[in-house]
Design brief:
alpha/beta; 10 strands; seven-stranded mixed β-sheet; about 15% strand; Spore Coat Polysaccharide Biosynthesis Protein SpsA, Chain A; globular; 10 helices
């Protein structure tokens, strides 16, 4: 490890988590490059992973923290992320900024480390259902160990808690003591909601980069590695609008969504995604 854990309070700490094969090591490497280009002063990126192969040496790779309980397989959400809320996290201390691997950093992120009080849990507001005032944990900040009761309570009743809240970010919303705080709205934006033109305008207009944005989150896709080329999903190819509609009609019985929803799954190649989502 390039930096001892004893000096971490003097550095900005960014963490991410990678398990399974959905995201390759390039996602971690590109996240590191984006952080390095958009931060001032000393920093360290940590990746909690079950496979460190291919991850650049500047990233400190640590094992996946144990969730310590079984979540029923029919429950949605990324409950493994809740393991980051434990009382101890491989010796890390102080506050950490979590960033999902499918994020695009487009501006300086220094303010994410100084906004609010150090002990605050800070996240984005759920963009797709703002009236529900829920947390969106694509980008969030916590003080390690301060809210260990969150993991303790989940471990005490994993089925009951997960069935009640369905998504781990709903659990964060309702159960963090004192409530969660939010980033200024313009800092953290949602690719589909804030960048992608509404349908059918997205057939002719490129995705836009919102003014004042620092991080673009992509929950639910399309992922940056696809949207930069005009692919909605991995393995798909870019087609002109009418060719896209014709292809979806021809293969409508094989599609994961209804035909009307599938023809809306369209994104033009985005040069600004390619500009920011890259490894130096």
């Amino acid at each position: 490890m390039a930096m001892t854990l004893l000096t971490q309070q003097a550095v900005k700490q960014v963490i991410c988590i990678k398990w399974g094969t959905f995201y390759g090591s390039e996602y971690v490497n590109i996240l590191y490059s984006m952080v390095a280009r958009n931060i001032t002063g000393a920093f360290q990126v940590y990746c909690f992973t079950d496979d460190a192969k291919g991850i650049r040496p500047e990233v400190a790779c640590l094992p996946l923290p144990e969730l310590g309980c079984e979540i029923p397989p029919d429950i949605p959400g990324k409950w493994k992320k809740q393991a980051l809320w434990g009382r101890e996290l491989f010796g890390l201390k102080g506050t950490v900024l979590f960033i999902d691997l499918d994020s695009i950093i487009v501006g300086n992120i220094d303010d994410y480390f100084t906004h609010g009080d150090p002990g605050d849990v800070i996240a984005a507001r759920n963009w797709l259902k703002p009236w529900e005032k829920m947390a969106q944990t694509s980008v969030f900040r916590i003080e390690i160990g301060r809210h260990a009761y969150m993991l303790d309570n989940l471990r005490a009743d994993p089925e009951g808690v997960s069935r009640k809240y369905k998504w781990e970010q709903n659990y964060v919303t309702h159960c963090v003591r004192g409530g969660f705080k939010t980033w200024p709205a313009e800092w953290t934006r949602h690719f589909r909601k804030h960048c992608l033109p509404s349908w059918p305008l997205r057939y002719w207009r490129d995705p836009v980069l919102p003014e004042g944005a620092k991080i673009i989150a992509c929950p639910g896709g399309p992922n940056p590695s696809d949207s930069m080329y005009g692919h909605w999903r991995k393995g798909e190819e870019y087609r002109a609008p009418w060719a896209h509609i014709a292809y979806k009609w021809k293969h409508r019985r094989e599609m994961p969504k209804s035909f009307l929803r599938e023809i809306a799954c369209y994104v033009r190649p985005s040069s600004w995604v390619a500009q920011h989502w890259r490894e130096d």
